[in-house]
Specification:
Blueprint lengths: L30 E4 L38 H4 L17 E6 L5 E2 L2 E2 L1 H16 L4 E4 L7 H6 L5 H12 L5 H17 L4 E4 L4 H14 L3 E5 L13 E7 L4 E5 L1 H8 L3 H11 L19 H11 L2 H8 L7 H9 L1 H11 L22 H33 L1
Parallel strand pairs: 1-6, 2-5, 2-7, 5-6, 7-8
Antiparallel strand pairs: 3-4, 8-9
Helix pairs in contact: 2-13, 8-9, 8-12, 9-10
Length: 397
């Protein structure tokens, strides 16, 4: 069993200042936790000038490789050529947004080893010294969507309650694990952000929107397919591929080659019309069995978006009778799906200028090695504790 969440009294790790390489850097915010200000106006902030980019070298790997045509790597992955990154898209500096929570799981089981492995690969092979902003789910982050749709992420809540019911999991252990993750990221010069009442997805979408307006490119590091709705010429994903044990860049060209539609249509199609079983969102095929992906894709390609399709269906016939009746009868159902699954861009969070500076990465190896050593010690301590317990039970018998 991974040493997930069972850290006992070990809740953080420390380093002697003499063991770290000294460098002159401006301090980054350690941990920014904002209250839920959904209904308040956003404070005005100063414009951030783009800074000089660090080269990333060759980017390799494409998600779902078997499903994609053979595309040239330098054409599709936005490879930077030269130290100044002055070729095509690479003229714009990249900012990485790290979706932390999914990296802390191995399958459905919480695992700090999983986090340690993926973050090590991410820093050493993907982001290097480009700016990275890490984002966590805020407390009660999915309440807004659960009010719209009670089944939203119901399965995940059930699994979480099962973990808490187990002797090996407590709310305190979850809290200690989160603190360890935040400590590690902070020591690697990564600002960590969470906003109460908002999921990490919405915070990332908001920050991506802001960073694009300032002339940067955005790369979202996450396995969450919901981020595909944000893909554009200047927004890429980088996905952890467990079966290949590496991160894989995924771009607009890859998306179009794989699905033959644009990302906005994907939100309308795969989420709103066909549903999202993982998130507990039912599709229209559950109400109208004959209304499948082929019909939905044909209508969306013609009308461009779910909003346009529903508007057209309300005033004229847009397809066969069963499709027409489905769109008019279940229009509110589809609109609710859209509201639940579309990522928000208006969370009350603003980019800080210091978040966009090159990240000092020279101590990454030492910090992450110490993090892994701590997990190993925690696991050994747990094994010894179990051995003692088993010995006492045998003695009693």
């Amino acid at each position: 069993m991974d040493s997930h969440l069972q850290i006992s009294k070990i809740s953080h790790f420390d380093f002697s200042s003499r063991s770290l390489k000294h460098s002159i850097t401006l301090p980054l915010p350690f941990f920014i936790s904002l209250p839920n200000l959904r209904n308040q106006k956003t404070k005005s902030w100063k414009a951030i000038k783009p800074l000089c980019s660090a080269t990333s070298g060759n980017q390799s790997a494409v998600a779902d490789e078997a499903l994609l045509p053979q595309l040239r790597e330098d054409e599709d992955l936005g490879v930077d050529y030269g130290s100044n990154g002055c070729n095509g898209l690479s003229r714009k500096r990249r900012v990485f947004f790290l979706d932390v929570n999914p990296l802390c799981y191995k399958g459905s089981t919480p695992s700090l080893e999983s986090f340690a492995r993926w973050i090590s690969l991410f820093f050493s092979q993907v982001s290097l010294n480009d700016p990275v902003v890490a984002v966590l789910d805020g407390e009660r982050g999915n309440e807004y969507r659960r009010q719209l749709l009670p089944s939203y992420k119901a399965n995940r809540r059930k699994i979480f309650q099962q973990f808490l019911a187990s002797e090996r999991f407590t709310r305190n252990s979850f809290g200690r694990s989160r603190k360890m993750v935040v400590d590690a990221l902070q020591k690697c010069n990564v600002p960590v952000v969470k906003v109460e009442g908002h999921e990490a997805d919405d915070v990332v979408a908001t920050l991506v929107h802001q960073v694009l307006k300032k002339g940067y490119r955005a790369v979202i590091a996450s396995p969450d397919k919901d981020f595909k709705q944000l893909i554009s010429e200047d927004v890429q994903l980088v996905i952890p591929l467990t079966e290949l044990d590496r991160w894989s860049f995924y771009t607009l060209k890859h998306y179009v080659a794989q699905y033959n539609c644009d990302p906005q249509s994907d939100l309308s199609l795969t989420g709103c019309m066909l549903g999202d079983e993982i998130d507990g969102v039912s599709g229209i095929q559950h109400l109208v069995p004959g209304f499948g992906r082929k019909t939905a894709l044909k209508l969306l390609k013609k009308h461009g978006s779910l909003t346009n399709l529903l508007s057209a269906a309300s005033v004229r016939t847009v397809g066969k009778q069963y499709a027409q009746e489905a769109l008019t009868t279940h229009a509110d159902f589809l609109r609710k799906n859209y509201e639940v699954l579309s990522l928000k861009r208006d969370v009350n969070i603003q980019l800080e200028e210091q978040w966009l500076r090159s990240r000092d990465a020279q101590n990454d190896s030492l910090i992450l090695s110490s993090f892994s050593d701590l997990l190993t010690k925690a696991q050994e301590k747990k094994r010894q504790s179990r051995s003692r317990s088993n010995g006492l039970e045998v003695a009693k018998q």
